[in-house]
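Put briefly, the fold is written as integer tokens. The lines below illustrate.
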Amino acid sequence: MYQEKRHKLIAFFCVAIVLIGGYFTYTHSGKNKMPEVKQIDTTPTTQTVAVNVPIKIPAKPTPPPLPLGTDQFVVSLAATSDDVSGKLLDGEYIKDASAFTTLIGAKVIAPGAYKISKDMTPAQLLQVLRGKPYMKWIVIPPGLRKEEIAALLAPALGWTKKQTTEWITKDTITKPEYIEGVYAPDTYLIPVGEKPVDVTTRLISKFNEGFAPYLPQFTAKNIKWTTALTLASIVQREAANVSDMPLISGILWNRLNQNMMLGVDATLQYIRGNKGAGWWAPITVADKQTDSPYNTYKHTSLPPHPIANPSLQAIDAVLNPTKTDCLYYIHDKNHITHCAATYEEHQVNIQKYLISPAN
């Protein structure tokens, strides 16, 4: 009985061993391998959303830099577009003057000096000529005092208020004889960057150039050049026109030679200055009472220095005055000069030509 149970137990274990072996053989064989369970990706997917991004517009291509301007090109004060084009053609900067005039259009080229080059295209030339000139024309008419000259120079050359004031009060008084009268009236082409003190030198140099031929002639007549210049400045202000300058000079020389007072309004206008009505506004009765060496109604001599900057014509008139007996003069409404040898004749002229002139 016991043996029988023992044999059954041994058989059970054998079967179990066979079954377990088969199981492991099945699970580890390559063919009978259990399929892998794929892991599902539960990460949320990112959805692409359209965003309104500004569209980049391609930038305009940068124009090539201008060739270096090596040549001075001067546009005169009265130059037209045709004149500018013609001058460029003559200088071989362009090949077609008519085309360049069309390119210029209605806009006028500002007078002055520019830096251009033959390497420039017509469009580049026009770009330069429509810019700011590096030299500007400045016209100084005869008979201005230096404050008036400064008013022309300052805006054209870009002077500050301080520079303008210093030009009047410092740069133009380096010598007593340079206070007034030596800033020659003329048409100048001046670099915009030129220092105010150098502009002073420029104007004085121009005066010296024009006055040089007269200097030995005044010396030969024993007339100091400063005296001649002061009288010329008065002639400039008192004459109605250039043709009358020799006559006015002759009359004023007569007064000086007879130790008379010159009695001219221009000297009073100079010392009075600009009181709001301009530098050369008509004088008043009160002006004639001014206690000043410039008051030629009270003093017989010339004023201390010139009262304006005269032209060469006025200087020539002082050197070559008209010979006359006249001591007095007036200008009628038509700017015609009438002179008289006596005060009585002078009063008649006043009545005839100023108070009750004939129509």
User: Anything to note?
Assistant: The longest helix spans residues 2-28. The radius of gyration is 49 Å. Residues 71-129 form a domain with the Dna Ligase; domain 1 fold (CATH 3.30.1490). Strands lie at 71-75, 112-116, 135-140, 186-191, 328-331, 337-340.
